[in-house]
Amino acid sequence: MSLLVELVIWWVALTVGWVATVSPLTLAELLVGAACALVCAVVAVSSRRALGHRWRPDVRWLAWLGRLAVAVPVDTARLLVQVTPRMLAGRDVPGRLVRLRPPTDEAASRAAFRRAWGTFVLSATPSSVVVDWPPDGAPVVLHLLGSGQVSTGKTVVR
User: What residue intervals traverse the membrane (predicted)?
Assistant: First the structure.
């Protein structure tokens, strides 16, 4: 991927993220958000290139966004029912660590993108966060809160 294409992708994605969180959107906020997103895009591209990382995404991984769109409201509702009463009562909140083994036959550039994108998707749900995802093919360590399901984690890791 060329430097310019990568920079534009980052810039658009970051600007869209900014616009999605601002209410109401004014022209000044849009311009400031776009300018800040451009600076962040330059830093992101420069950092990745300085570290020598190569990413090779798979377009099928965009489907993880669909799972994420379902998981966020479902997890939020489930946690409100399961966890909030326990927290208000001063009791321990159940959580657990799950280890999931990623594919071992993946090219390094594809595995690097899976780790980056997968960490974002898994950590964006209210009931899970990626604790560790080593680059050497060791298992992903995922912390689940409450009686969270591992299905999204299994989808991302397989």
Answer: 7-25, 31-51
